[in-house]
């Protein structure tokens, strides 16, 4: 039912939804709600739960609360957020490849991929809308053509779809691990071995909601990162990483988890003087491999290191020789 008056949730306008859980097997509250409200993102569903807008058997619950047959669930859905009008903006894009189906770019550090609250303009999507006139309508209003994303301060290879057919094909390649994504980074310290893998479920940090952390299986999503030591640079190491999964902040979280955080990482790094100025973490998506979504051609792209990343390597190598 709909209501415009305040209610037991202590909020105003919105929609009250009441459902009985009828499945025979237990299921986490947040995952079940996502299946029931596919128009809402997982992040938004978890926001509703954390804000106390979801009751299980008339009591506030947590995202990981297991539902049992016969449980009563009440959800107070606030009105949808107003859509952000996406304005095309002229932007200097570093284009590695482009045809009528896809565009591959070398994203610069400091550039946000798609609009979000507080960032309605100046994003990669705004620049893509100016450059590609047919993107609107592909993959939703706020993320047109976006197949995968890079964090704001992570630079490197990204592929963007220019048609719905290309988008679906590329998303499948990412999901089925057909596409490959390789990164390089400078980390604090030196690993004990020359290569290995980091396995750890990733979920929201319990103490800081802006961060992610390695958590237990019930609280997070499986994540696996392969790594190799490329070069020891004094108290630092140049590393290569290959993603087996693609979770938010995955490489950054996994590096911090093994006590080798990425140099310059504002969220997961160490608070110490840097060898030289960095605008963000020293993490770069150096290589992207995929099959063309339309003609099936195998393709591989390499993105040149940003100037400040190259300077960092020069400074570290020079300090070793001194």
TrEMBL record:
<protein>
    <recommendedName>
        <fullName>Pseudouridine synthase</fullName>
        <ecNumber>5.4.99.-</ecNumber>
    </recommendedName>
</protein>
<feature type="domain" description="RNA-binding S4">
    <location>
        <begin position="27"/>
        <end position="84"/>
    </location>
</feature>
<feature type="active site">
    <location>
        <position position="151"/>
    </location>
</feature>
<dbReference type="Pfam" id="PF00849">
    <property type="entry name" value="PseudoU_synth_2"/>
</dbReference>
<comment type="similarity">
    <text>Belongs to the pseudouridine synthase RluA family.</text>
</comment>
<dbReference type="GO" id="GO:0016829">
    <property type="term" value="F:lyase activity"/>
</dbReference>
<keyword id="KW-0413">Isomerase</keyword>
<keyword id="KW-0694">RNA-binding</keyword>
<dbReference type="Pfam" id="PF01479">
    <property type="entry name" value="S4"/>
</dbReference>
<dbReference type="InterPro" id="IPR002942">
    <property type="entry name" value="S4_RNA-bd"/>
</dbReference>
<dbReference type="InterPro" id="IPR006225">
    <property type="entry name" value="PsdUridine_synth_RluC/D"/>
</dbReference>
<dbReference type="GO" id="GO:0000455">
    <property type="term" value="P:enzyme-directed rRNA pseudouridine synthesis"/>
</dbReference>
<dbReference type="InterPro" id="IPR036986">
    <property type="entry name" value="S4_RNA-bd_sf"/>
</dbReference>
<dbReference type="InterPro" id="IPR006145">
    <property type="entry name" value="PsdUridine_synth_RsuA/RluA"/>
</dbReference>
<dbReference type="GO" id="GO:0003723">
    <property type="term" value="F:RNA binding"/>
</dbReference>
<dbReference type="GO" id="GO:0120159">
    <property type="term" value="F:rRNA pseudouridine synthase activity"/>
</dbReference>
<keyword id="KW-0456">Lyase</keyword>
<dbReference type="InterPro" id="IPR006224">
    <property type="entry name" value="PsdUridine_synth_RluA-like_CS"/>
</dbReference>
<dbReference type="InterPro" id="IPR050188">
    <property type="entry name" value="RluA_PseudoU_synthase"/>
</dbReference>
<dbReference type="InterPro" id="IPR020103">
    <property type="entry name" value="PsdUridine_synth_cat_dom_sf"/>
</dbReference>
<comment type="function">
    <text>Responsible for synthesis of pseudouridine from uracil.</text>
</comment>
């Amino acid at each position: 039912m709909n209501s415009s008056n305040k209610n037991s949730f202590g909020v105003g306008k919105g929609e009250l939804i009441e459902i009985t859980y009828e499945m025979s097997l237990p299921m986490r509250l947040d995952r079940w709600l996502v299946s029931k409200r596919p128009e809402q993102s997982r992040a938004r569903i978890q926001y509703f739960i954390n804000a106390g807008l979801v009751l299980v058997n008339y009591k506030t619950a947590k995202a990981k609360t297991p539902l049992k047959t016969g449980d009563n669930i009440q959800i107070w859905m606030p009105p949808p957020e107003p859509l952000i009008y996406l304005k095309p903006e002229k932007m200097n894009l570093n284009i590695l490849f482009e045809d009528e189906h896809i565009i591959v770019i070398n994203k610069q550090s400091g550039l946000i991929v798609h609009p979000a609250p507080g960032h309605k303009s100046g994003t990669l999507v705004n620049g893509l809308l100016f450059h590609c006139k047919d993107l609107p309508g592909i993959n939703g209003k706020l993320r047109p053509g976006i197949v995968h994303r890079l964090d704001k301060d992570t630079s490197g290879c990204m592929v963007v779809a220019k048609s719905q057919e290309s988008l679906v094909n590329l998303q499948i390649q990412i999901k089925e691990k057909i596409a490959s994504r390789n990164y390089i980074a400078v980390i604090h310290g030196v690993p004990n071995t020359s290569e290995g893998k980091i396995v750890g479920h990733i979920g929201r940090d319990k103490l800081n909601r802006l961060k992610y952390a390695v958590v237990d299986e019930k609280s997070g999503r499986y994540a696996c990162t392969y790594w190799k030591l490329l070069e020891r640079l004094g108290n630092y190491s140049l590393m290569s990483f290959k993603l087996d999964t693609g979770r938010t902040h995955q490489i950054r979280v996994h590096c911090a988890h093994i006590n080798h955080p990425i140099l310059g990482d504002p969220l997961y790094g160490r608070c110490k003087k840097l060898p030289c100025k960095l605008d963000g973490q020293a993490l770069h998506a150096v290589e992207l491999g995929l099959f063309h979504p339309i003609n099936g051609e195998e393709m591989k792209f390499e993105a040149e290191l940003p100037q400040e990343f190259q300077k960092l390597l020069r400074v570290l190598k020079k300090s070793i020789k001194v």
